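Margin note from the TA: students keep mixing up input and output lines. Inputs are the sequences; the output is the structure of the whole complex. Example:
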Amino acid sequence: MTTAVTADSLVSRAADLDAADPLRHCRERFLLPEGTTYLDGNSLGALPAAVPDAMRDAVHRQWGTGLIGSWFGGDAEWWGLPERLGDRVGALLGAAPGQTVVGDSTSVQIFNTLTAAARLRPNRRLLLTDAGHFPTDAYLADSVGEMLGLEVRRVPAAQLREALEADGDRTAVVAFPAVDFATGERWDMPGLTAAAHAAGALVVWDLCHAAGALELQLDAWDVDFAVGCTYKYLSGGPGAPAFAYAARAHHAMMRQPLTGWTGHADPFAMRGTYEGAAGIGRARIGTPTVLSMLALEAAIGAFDGVDLATLRAQSLSLTGFFIECCDALLGGRGFEIVTPREPERRGSQVTLRHPDAVKLVPAAAERGVVGDKREPDLLRYGFNALYNTHADAVRAATTLAELT
Amino acid sequence: MTTAVTADSLVSRAADLDAADPLRHCRERFLLPEGTTYLDGNSLGALPAAVPDAMRDAVHRQWGTGLIGSWFGGDAEWWGLPERLGDRVGALLGAAPGQTVVGDSTSVQIFNTLTAAARLRPNRRLLLTDAGHFPTDAYLADSVGEMLGLEVRRVPAAQLREALEADGDRTAVVAFPAVDFATGERWDMPGLTAAAHAAGALVVWDLCHAAGALELQLDAWDVDFAVGCTYKYLSGGPGAPAFAYAARAHHAMMRQPLTGWTGHADPFAMRGTYEGAAGIGRARIGTPTVLSMLALEAAIGAFDGVDLATLRAQSLSLTGFFIECCDALLGGRGFEIVTPREPERRGSQVTLRHPDAVKLVPAAAERGVVGDKREPDLLRYGFNALYNTHADAVRAATTLAELT
């Protein structure tokens, strides 16, 4: 006797799981269009409900009325945004205050941070970076390599330990993503950080697909540097500013190449030569993009009172259940599940492979299930435990079944 | 018989000048707090009236409802913002379309542009930059110098021609501001560009205090590169994104170090190695900060139909009249006018020196006249011809007289 898993039974299980979801009160913290199953928060997070009022206040009161006075006066205090927001983001990364700044784009932060890290190992001429890294990480590693005269070697994350065994003593910096942007595979951050340190190298982690989704412990794992964006699981808005983390132990010696005036020890003294601020402030670059930062500040309130272990457990429940749904409903339809099935090897997205991916993703979106594609044949569905549900997972798999 | 210029006669002349102002219809394009004379638009421009609605639309409709689809779909087309906005800014710089991008901070654009320029003169090892340049320009010139192995020499703008005569054949890049941030002095951009070219060097102009205030002609003056911010006379909002101009003739050969993925020739092919886009697109860096950019896009509409020659003439009328008011009302009170009196040597601000500047600026602000200070002894009053009036000028001088 076999027990076929039916769509109906999955819908019923989803309802039970969603009823028991300890984060279900967080869903009302987002304004999602009715009828849409939004599984593209790994690319652009949904709109947090607190953002519209915050932006109205930012424009009318802080800018329009407070004018220049809002940089330092009243409750606006724009000047402090990079560090103030940095601490808010840092709390979601397992970073004690005073080690994270927010600003600029991830690309800019990668350049600044890779260079600062490499300069801390001046006698080592090798930079190891992920062969499957997101393109901007790869491009900027090459650029840093050219400017500093480093060899840049691309290594699959799964082979990093071997590479360190062979060439660790020449390796200045190891730069990898916490979660692969294409496959959704999660790498062993604490283990690989320890391996890099054992070889005397420093690590720079890209947390774009991890911040706000995983239970990160940057301080406890002894991470040196990390960067990431805030527009995916942190739902900070389109192109929201990036963040950079630098462990306190490096603050005194680190030298970022983007020596913008706001990172100066005494910026308004307007001195002619650069002297970086004593703490994480030296990782500040130019004048902060206030409006985008204030949107992020409001958005990040959606994490208030959320325990990261609970968040991670819910994320795994959602992605695990989606894999179950795909197994049950998509068999024999040309799909392959690319993301690892072991929970500890998953981020918060599930990637499927299908020869018609490029057509299926927009077709599903027309039916209200929004994900994204990566050419030539990947479908990516990201789950944000603050607003996605197990019902979303069934609907997505059902829709893909209907289309194939 | 002497004719003393009285405050009353200045008020009367101001009224006549304002009644004849060809740009007086532009004042309603800004939302200024009642009772405030805002003369700090050279630091943060006032709120353009079109911004609040644009931001509401950006947040609710484009982000909240359009979600990921707004990057390429509908009328949002966020992806195109850097070039689309670049062309809008370029039109105010005398730049034909396709040579300007908007994004990131001025500091980041300085680094990217100085490096790209220096790489076009690989056999020259000297970078000449303004001894009185804004600090971030000085710091980033030093950083570029360190990374590329260039000597960075600080030269007062007034001595640039002599420096070029002495060492022009070793000079790769000449990096100066169009207008001095502290004194408001305007330098001879076309003449100094020609002098640099005669020596075989390239120019990088910082237009922070010029864009939206002067009648710039980057194409006609044969400028190589320029950068600037959009939050001063362009009123794009606090920390609004910067711009970078690169003359078309350099597009094929220029190599920016910040090789972010959005500047790739085919960004969504996600290739492992960088190949810059064919045109100005290669000056793009990371993911654009959409909300800040959409505020700027709405703001720049305040220039619609404004002829730059008229704008410049009005700006000179305002600053010239303010100098007259200061001469008439501030004599014997310890003030010195720092900004040159010759119109062609002025930007759009007037800087005064007074031993009590640090106290006078906030005291005047309390009486509704907002400017800013630069320690130890400078008062800066910036005039934006789109919203400032000759009445503002009299009021500012009168207020300073009352306080001294």
